Amino acid sequence: MVKEFNILITGVGGQGVILMSELLGKAAVTDGLRVRGSEILGMAVRGGSVTSAIRIGDEVYGPLIPTGKCNALVGMEPSEALRNIAYLSKSSRVILNTAVTIPFTVSIGESTYPSLEEMLAKLGKASDMIIQLDAAQLAQEAGNRLTTNIVMLGALFGTGQLPIKIATIKESIQARFPAKVAPVNIKAFDLGYETCQQAVK
Amino acid sequence: MKELTVSSDAPGQRLFVLGNEAIARGAIEAGVQIAAAYPGTPSSEILETLAGVAKELDMYVEWSTNEKVAFEVALAASICGVRAMASMKHVGVNVAHDPLMTASYIGAKGGLVLLSADDPSAWSSQNEQDNRYIAEQGYIPVLEPSSVQEAKEMMADAFKLSEQFGQLFMLRSVTRIGHARSDITLGEISRERRKGQFIKDRTRLVYTPREARINKPLMLERFEKIKKAVNTLPYNQLKLASGAKLGIIACGLSYSYALEAVNWLGIKDKVSILKIGTPHPLPEELVIKLLTSVKEVLVAEELDPFVELHVKAIVGERNMPVKIHGEDLLTRIGELSTRKVTEAIAKLTKTKTPVDFANIDKLEQETAPLLPWRPPALCPGCPHRASHYAVRVASRRVARDYGKEIEPIYPGDIGCYALGYNPPQEASDTIICMGGSFGIASGLARVVDAPIVAHLGDSTFFHAGIPPLVNAVYNKANITMVIMDNSATAMTGFQPHPGTGYTAMGEETVLLKPEEIARACGVKFVEVVDPFNLKEATETIEKAIRFEGPAVVVSRRLCAIIEQREKKKRKEEVIPYRVDQSKCNEKCNACIELLGCPAIIKEGTKTVIDSSLCTGCGVCAQVCPYKAIVLE
């Protein structure tokens, strides 16, 4: 029985955050688990911040992850992971894509973008386990840059913490994509998974 | 195996869905025959889901021109004995308010349900109004779900209750229901399809003062019956803990936060909980039972202290020795959370919080200054960016003639183009409500001596832009009205509207043109421009502003997202622009500062175009004073 496992996916509109939570949710239901979650949708397509919560377990009721109660944070973009630092605790796993997306407000001089070191230092104050990977690079290796989100999904499973079976999430990925591109996505998942496993060791 | 969907006739099966899909499923299970809506976050997916299965399930589904019409369409079906619904965002209910208040006098023959999608925290709205007050004003009973599963059950039940009591029901959803995701267990689908029958009944349907006076007491009688019945509805549940000093009254989604809070605090068996699924009318018998068993009560509810005030009235009336808390500890601003409820209960029970929230807050505050500002922006290639640019250049030219200090005023409206209010364009000076730009412009013209150039989108024009346009003509308001026509209700997800030529159910229909409507309304200056031709657009808008009397310019270009999708389908290549570094004056930054396109970025001191984002619209190339932006 799973009591409560909270996953927060953070990123920028267009990075495939919502698709990741749909895949996770469907797989969890297939495995007979209870799932709750929520996201902000309306502005997602226009390059704003996007967060999506997926919560699994019998003692989960609300759609939102309580402050400090996130088990795994998937950061598709470093500053967006940092924006959600309040959800982390020392035992949270942070899986971080180190590729940055700089908002247009930096170009017009309305804000500044921090260095990766600064961001990692802050995240390190909240959580003891930060796994960094260049997901875009791994996606390229898998055969398509657009699979970055699936690489990150693989990395999430690579932490070895998820209550969803790996076979089930792979089935879920297989079913979601047309036969032509499904293998590339499975490869992307595996690359993310292995990279994370290596890092955890 | 056929994949399970919201229309599958598979009782007992589990499906992972968005809350709004669950609400649609509830209506499907109830056998709804007529559904009408106007898009608005967080409600749009309900009607979208129904539209997708309408033909298969023999339903009629429409995107109406606005929420008032949507509600009237549903009301008419109900009058004829057919199950019907209208769904809308919270501020949409304001538009439907007029028929709503009399609909409750009429009562319901066919089950009639109004779905109000409230938006605590105003994630995608201009305010965070609590529509339970509107329901109270109209004696409309409210069901408020605590989970996505319950939202489905309530939606299905609402039709039955509406018929049982002969009254219109409201389902109050909130963002974290409609845009939550959850597994749900499917129920049976009703296949009953009724033939509508209009029975002439002056006393019930023709509202002159006589009928208002006859029907109000009848409505009050219906409401009294509902008031008794809610005490035994399964959506209201009282769990008394023996010896408990604290009671929690948790309404709707707050119940899920309250359950998590008492578990987190480890005091599950030490507090009594009353779950409220009908905030209006309240299950008074259950409330009184709780009040007589505890010393203190915390009322948790989304937004205003609606339940709290009614509970306080019960306490006051009976002079009960129990202290009621609610907004003193939870505030009426923003959405609730497990944390907020946990902190409130911890305070009342003098329990230590399970997490050191102060420490987390400190870290968050330290982090805040590091974070870049990432507001949603107009997409690369969005025609609204070009329209805003043309409006501003033209308006400033005219303003110079008004005097040195005079600045043009830009009343704006609800839709994607509102994103232009951010820097660098700062293209809207007011945004208040649907169609508000034209009405505000008419008022400004009476009191301010400056060019007044209002803008709204095509869908907003059909929704609420025509009456203020007529008003400007009739009252000779000297304003310019720009209709930014991208042939889509883009902000809410590209729903069709009267200017697109097809309906919610995918049928072809007449295509209405805003310029023809403007001419028919008596506007003497009406021109259509392509915003990607900046020179022509700017000159035409300047002429419109200089025109004595109301003038209309339709700035027409298909939404960039739809355009890109169609190009992909046609296998047409997108040719991006690039910056010729030999011509670019790196310090100029005109393209960035005038347009704020996400595809134009600084790499060190260099200005570059991100070829993966550029759609090849060419607007920046027209703005560049050095002719440094060229095709790849």
Overall description:
- The complex is a heterodimer of chains A (201) and B (632).
- Chain A is an alpha/beta fold.
- Chain A has a single domain (5-200), classed as Pyruvate-ferredoxin oxidoreductase, PFOR, domain III (Pyruvate-ferredoxin Oxidoreductase, domain 3).
- Chain A is 42% helix and 17% strand.
- Chain A has helices spanning 17-30, 78-83, 104-107, 116-126, 135-142, 148-158, 166-176, 182-200; strands at 5-12, 35-39, 49-56, 72-75, 93-97, 129-133.
- In chain A, strand 4, helix 2 (78-83) and strand 5 (93-97) form a beta-alpha-beta unit.
- The longest helix of chain A has 19 residues, at 182-200.
- Chain A starts with a strand and ends with a helix.
- The model of chain A has no long low-confidence stretch (mean pLDDT 94).
- Chain B is an alpha/beta fold and 632 residues long.
- Helix content of chain B is 41%, strand content 16%.
- Chain B has a 6-stranded parallel β-sheet with strand order 3-2-4-5-7-6. In chain B, strands 9-11-10-12-13 form a 5-stranded mixed β-sheet, with helices on both faces. A 4-stranded parallel β-sheet of chain B has the order 14-15-17-16, sandwiched between helices.
- In chain B, helix 1 packs parallel to helix 2 (44-57) and helix 3 (67-79) runs parallel beside helix 5 (97-106).
- The chains are: A alpha/beta (201), B alpha/beta (632).
- Chains A and B meet through helix 1, strand 2, helix 2, helix 3 and helix 4 of A and strand 1, helix 8, strand 8, helix 11 and helix 15 of B.
